[in-house]
UniProtKB/TrEMBL annotation, chains A, B:
GO terms for biological process: oxaloacetate metabolic process. The keyword Repeat does not apply. Residues 116-323 form the Fumarylacetoacetase-like C-terminal domain. This is Fumarylacetoacetase-like C-terminal domain-containing protein. Keywords: Metal-binding. The keyword ATP-binding does not apply. It holds the Pfam family FAA_hydrolase. Belongs to the FAH family. GO terms for molecular function: metal ion binding; oxaloacetate tautomerase activity.
């Protein structure tokens, strides 16, 4: 089951008043924008990059605005400043013939097929307290395969292989330009923007099997809902002071603030870039606050028919049915 | 430092007599071929797909043979039978104007930018015995980021961040078509072919840090030399009965046989496809035999100036300088 598309316009509207650039928070892109990937209803194969106009005013199809623009976010990011400037111009001009009404839009994950999905474990103070775990002295890094990514309003498929599928709302960010050995003070200039993720986790596979390597429990198909937009760095006041919540069937199960993050965006970028070259489109999930199902007494896990909603202030809302 | 290119022709020659298709071993491609990715010397950016003619007779540039063919192996695999048939025809016809002499070829990894690099840990009986570890009852799956992949004769860069970089020769295979929940008896029909990998590992990061999640220690840039060719399934007599060796500075440090594999190709494909959809180009590293540096007494690690050579009978040889 898909959620009604018109709910998207409500989401955009609630954040649209913050869409002017915030001085001092310049990432790859100096402009405040909500970039999306979408397909038109009935053209499910055709990925397009768009700019959300906010206020429910529809999405600008970037390739319709400028045919030299690419079809995917990853390619747009790889273009660097030229791509971002074009998106900004498209938003300013907003020619009617390039605007797709929300009723005709199916939003996809803002990034598809990244080279990496990098995840940070145990990265909220209050989440460590919840499980009586020490505060890590270094980030704990694991990964999902890109095949786990699904859209902001697509279904989470419960696999037959797990009985313990859990939710994890997370602030995600997307890399905007290539870099290695990035310094903390330069890190934000490598970040294109932020989005909302659900780091769906099969606890049996993560914690008890596979030699305690977390990968398999984290990477079933559909275990990484992402979106609804890539919100450029300039459009987020302070990424490390945002309300972050997860609701299951309308009940808040996680409710914290990104000010509880142990390793912040800049530190995570600097840390991981010691090991690997970061590339445009790389997705980072920064960790989850307390309230996950596995640490409840008794534990609670997702079941078919549940609806999981992940919310981060200023960034957006994703909502996924469990099937 | 690069190794002399003419050594490639020696490698091809030694296997060329086995290049007729082996009945009963049909993967994605029924033909026996050694497919490569290469760039011409002096055109370092230009990736091409080629078919090794063997006997030092050069490489057929597939796009020169048929302009409708793609530039990369992943795209060729995504084409399915059409791409493989074209490669086979190119090998049969071998028009002079499409043959690039080995002296002008720089071999790249046979696959670049796969969606996944899937690795199996603790998958050789004799390697488990070496470390007094029990034989696993299920495959242990971890991963590298695709950014770790480097060419068959490219350098392994020792990172400043590790003092314990180790070698691991491994039989690798490449997925040729999309699949989920693949049965063991069908698994080989999803495999395009085999290649040689070195699962270079920073033991300090793998075993002692990062919350014992192996990823970081396994995924430094250049920690996945791969090649020299994608040897189609039909060109390998029995992938589970091949001599497998690693030499450091000419001294054999690993010397075993793929008949020691606990979980064979078919089982690994079936296992992993329970969790994730497999896609053309996905690279699997199947695990390493005994003789790694960390379990020696005293432990031995790679240092600048070392040359690591990984050999698998019928599949090929890769050789990487440590810098």
């Amino acid at each position: 089951m898909r959620l009604p598309i018109h709910s998207l316009s409500l989401i955009s509207r609630s954040f649209s008043d913050r869409l002017s650039a915030i001085p001092g928070r310049r990432g790859v892109c100096g402009a405040a924008m909500r970039l999306v990937q979408f397909c038109r209803q009935g053209d499910e194969g055709g990925v397009r990059v768009g700019v959300d106009r906010g206020e429910g005013l529809g999405v600008i199809d970037l390739k319709a605005f400028d045919p030299s623009m690419p079809m995917t976010m990853r390619e747009l990011l790889e273009m660097g400043a030229k791509g971002m400037q074009c998106a900004q111009r498209a938003l300013e001009v907003s020619p009617t013939q390039c605007v797709v009404p929300f009723a005709e839009v199916r939003l996809l994950s803002p990034v598809l097929a990244p080279e990496k999905v990098v995840c940070v474990g145990m990265n909220y103070r209050d989440h460590c307290l919840e499980q009586n775990a020490p505060i890590p002295k270094e980030p704990i890094i694991f990964s999902k395969f890109p095949s786990a990514i699904t859209g902001p309003f697509d279904d989470i498929t419960l696999p037959d292989e797990s009985q313990e599928v859990d939710w994890e709302v997370e602030l995600a960010f997307v890399i905007g330009r290539k870099g290695k050995h990035i310094k903390e003070e330069d890190a934000m200039s490598y970040v294109a923007g932020f989005t909302v993720a659900n780091d769906v986790s099969a606890r049996d596979w993560q914690m008890k099997r596979n030699g305690k390597q977390w990968l398999l429990g984290k990477t079933f198909d559909s275990f990484c809902p992402l979106g609804p937009a890539l919100v450029t760095t300039s459009a987020v006041m302070d990424p490390h002071n945002l309300g972050i919540r997860c609701l299951v069937n309308g009940v808040a199960v996680q409710n914290s603030n990104t000010n509880q993050l142990i390793f912040k965006t800049e530190q995570v970028v600097a840390w991981v870039s010691q090991f690997v070259t970061l590339s445009p489109g790389d997705v980072f999930l920064t960790g989850t606050p307390p309230g996950v199902g596995v640490f409840r007494n008794p534990p609670v896990f997702l079941k078919k028919g549940d609806v999981v909603e992940c919310q981060i202030d200023q960034v957006g809302v994703i909502r996924n049915n469990v099937v």
